[in-house]
Structures are given as structure tokens and as C-alpha cells.
């Protein structure tokens, strides 16, 4: 890719970040740093949902090179090459629409990268000036390193031709980035509330059982997202065409060995043969059945948290999203994989990551109303 095209891409990334940065700067909120964190959370959530749309519309190779599109900074400049590829294979991975979907995804990712650089830079400057805990630069710096790793996996997603393990890791890193940003945002909220005297840190935290349940919820949710990513990246969503049975059987014919061999090409076994349908069935079946574990653990965590001060609202939110996730997961089977429902299912997973992260933060760092604290004194 030529230097001029790289410069153009960099400028597009800066432009993608200009609007949210301008919104933060012109906001009436005096705490611009906290505002920037939550704007970045919102855009990262959007990026995950749009990434799901990119994957589900088979647009991951809409531009078969990286970081540009046929060496150009945008599909307009690569129009001739894209049209030639589409003419050669009208139903192939490269079309004009798919190229734009893929590049918009990349532009949004670059814009978020710029915002994270801004978060890190602001944190370091303010930390050196004030030494205030909310500007501790460790987490923003970790976010910067994390987004670089995420960018590398985004590149390998394209250059390794949608290799399932790479795409799945790319998804997990995106969810991890969202979780880290939410943790940072929760830290800013708590610091602002304590500074303005609206809350005080209570002496007693959450019960040990609730702490363990919240952590277990995060672990099983991570596993389920990995399994869901494995289903999506292997195109195994329709491997089971009924529910609760799978192709008429409680335990259908399954090939776990080939289905869960991680290092292999898309649609192939490690030996290079076509992946048998029984392997896709195994992938789908495991994700579907582990969902019952997720429902049990997250449901129990929400039930136990509902009466705990400060997290009852998050508990209700988790319960609601769990119900919607179950409904959209079943609907993808019964409605033969409609795109909108599938994207909503991915959005629900990201929303659960956000809520479970908030639950864990508020349990770990509880705070209570000042009036309540004064009443006990």
C-alpha cells in the first residue's frame, strides 16, 4: 500500500474521531474525561454490533487486503477492482456493498483507536498534575495496548481468509475491550459521585457468595461468547434446524474432533478436507446446551443481587437481557437465521458483557447514599 493511501486512511480515522471528540468538548458536562469514556463505550458497543453485521453478511473479505481496499483508502478509489471481482464472482466475497460494509467497520475501529489514544494521553497528563485516583493511567494504557492487539487480529482476520480461530479471538478481544472501557467508565462515575458528596464508600461490601456468583457469571459468559463466535465463524448457525431437539434427536451425530480443532482453514479440517456436517452440528449443539449453564449462573447471580443495594437495577437488566437472548437464540433457528435477529443476538451478548462488568465493579467497589451513611453514624 502506498504512503499516500496510508496517510489518507489515517486522516479518515482522525475524522471518524472528530465528531465524538467535538461532542465531548461542546458538552455541558464539566467532567469531559468521564464523558469521553462513556462516548467511547457507546461507540465500541456499536462497533461490536456492526462487526457482527459485517460477519453475518459475509463481508469480512469485502476488501481482500488490509488496511485499505485494493491498496486504496476507500472503495471509491478501488471501484474498478471491486467491480471486476464482483463480475467474475457475483455471489463471491467481494462486492461493492460488501466492500463498503467492511471499510466502514475499519473506519469506525480506527476512530475508536484515536479516542483511546486521547483517553490515555489525558489520563497521563492529569495524573501527573493531580495524582487523583480516577486518572490513574494503568487502565487507559492497558486499553491502548489492547486496541493494538485487536487491530492486529483484525488484520489477520483478512490476511488469513477468515480463519475461524482468528475471527473468534477478534470477537473476544472486542468484548474484552468493551468490558475494560465499562470498568473505566464505572470508575469515573464512582469518583465523580464521591467527589460531589452524593455517595460514600460503605465499610461493608457485598456478601462473599454474591461476589463469587458475579465472577462466575463473567467467566461463563466469556465461554459462551467464545462458543457463539465459534458457531458464527464456522457458519454453523443452521446445523440444528429444530429446538429443543437437534435435527430430531436429543443427542445427534456429532464430530467433536474436527469441530473443535482450532487451527484450520474455514470450512476445512486440519488435514485440508471439507469439514463434515456432523462437525458443524457438534459446534452448534455445544453452544446451544451451554446456554442453559449461562441462564442458570447469570440468572442466579441476578436473583441474589436483586436485593443488594446499588446493584438491583443491574440485576433486573441482566434478567431482562437474558430472556431476550434466549428468545433471539431460539428465533434464529425457527425463523431460519434472519439477519436482524442474528445481529440482535450478538448485540444482546455485548449488552450482557456491559451489565455483568458493571455488576462486578459495583460489588467490588460499593457505594451508598450519603443520607443513609449519615443516618447510621
From TrEMBL:
Task: Tell me which stretches of the chain form a coiled coil.
Answer: none
In the record, what terms sit under GO molecular function? metal ion binding; oxidoreductase activity
This protein's GO CC annotations: membrane
One Pfam family this chain carries?
COX15-CtaA
Pathway it works in: Porphyrin-containing compound metabolism
Record key words, sorted:
Cell membrane, Disulfide bond, Heme biosynthesis, Iron, Membrane, Metal-binding, Oxidoreductase, Transmembrane, Transmembrane helix
One GO term of the biological process aspect: heme A biosynthetic process
User: Where in the cell?
Assistant: Membrane
Q: Which residues cross the membrane?
A: 6-24, 36-56, 107-127, 139-159, 165-186, 207-227, 285-305, 317-337, 343-361
**InterPro entries on file:** COX15/CtaA_fam, COX15/CtaA_HemeA_synthase
Query: Mainly resides where?
Result: membrane
Lipid bilayer topology: Multi-pass membrane protein
The name of this protein is: Heme A synthase
* Record organism: Massilia violaceinigra
Amino acid at each position: 500500500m502506498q504512503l499516500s493511501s496510508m496517510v489518507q486512511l489515517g486522516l479518515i480515522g482522525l475524522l471518524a474521531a472528530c465528531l465524538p471528540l467535538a461532542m465531548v468538548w461542546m458538552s455541558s458536562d464539566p467532567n469531559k474525561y468521564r464523558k469521553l469514556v462513556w462516548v467511547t463505550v457507546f461507540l465500541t458497543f456499536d462497533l461490536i454490533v456492526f462487526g457482527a453485521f459485517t460477519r453475518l453478511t459475509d463481508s469480512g473479505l469485502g476488501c481482500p487486503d488490509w488496511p485499505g481496499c485494493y491498496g486504496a483508502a476507500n472503495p471509491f478509489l478501488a471501484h474498478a477492482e471491486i467491480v471486476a471481482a464482483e463480475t467474475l464472482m457475483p455471489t463471491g466475497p467481494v462486492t461493492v456493498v460488501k466492500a463498503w460494509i467492511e471499510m466502514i467497520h475499519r473506519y469506525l475501529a480506527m476512530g475508536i483507536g484515536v479516542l483511546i489514544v486521547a483517553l490515555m494521553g489525558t489520563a497521563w497528563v492529569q495524573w501527573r498534575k493531580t495524582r487523583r485516583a480516577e486518572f490513574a493511567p494503568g487502565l487507559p494504557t492497558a486499553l491502548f495496548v489492547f486496541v493494538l492487539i485487536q487491530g492486529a487480529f483484525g488484520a489477520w482476520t483478512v490476511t488469513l481468509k477468515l480463519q475461524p480461530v482468528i475471527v473468534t479471538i477478534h470477537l473476544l478481544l472486542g468484548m474484552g475491550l468493551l468490558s475494560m472501557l465499562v470498568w473505566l467508565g464505572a470508575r469515573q462515575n464512582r469518583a465523580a459521585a464521591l467527589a460531589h458528596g452524593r455517595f460514600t464508600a460503605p465499610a461493608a461490601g457485598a456478601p462473599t457468595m454474591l461476589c463469587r456468583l458475579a465472577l462466575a457469571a463473567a467467566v461463563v459468559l466469556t465461554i459462551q461468547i467464545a462458543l457463539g463466535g465459534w458457531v458464527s465463524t464456522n457458519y454453523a448457525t443452521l446445523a440444528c434446524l429444530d429446538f429443543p431437539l437437534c435435527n430430531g434427536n436429543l443427542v445427534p451425530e456429532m464430530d467433536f474432533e474436527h469441530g473443535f480443532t482450532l487451527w484450520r482453514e474455514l470450512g476445512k479440517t486440519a488435514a485440508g478436507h471439507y469439514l463434515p456436517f456432523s462437525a458443524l452440528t457438534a459446534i452448534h449443539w455445544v453452544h446451544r446446551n451451554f446456554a442453559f449453564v449461562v441462564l442458570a449462573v447469570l440468572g442466579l447471580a441476578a436473583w441474589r443481587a436483586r436485593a443488594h443495594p446499588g446493584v438491583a437495577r443491574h440485576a433486573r437488566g441482566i434478567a431482562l437481557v437474558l430472556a431476550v437472548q434466549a428468545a433471539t437464540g431460539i428465533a434464529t433457528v425457527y425463523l431460519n437465521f434472519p439477519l436482524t435477529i442474528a445481529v440482535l443476538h450478538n448485540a444482546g451478548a455485548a449488552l450482557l458483557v456491559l451489565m455483568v462488568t458493571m455488576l462486578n465493579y459495583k460489588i467490588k467497589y460499593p457505594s451508598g447514599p450519603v443520607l443513609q451513611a449519615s443516618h447510621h453514624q
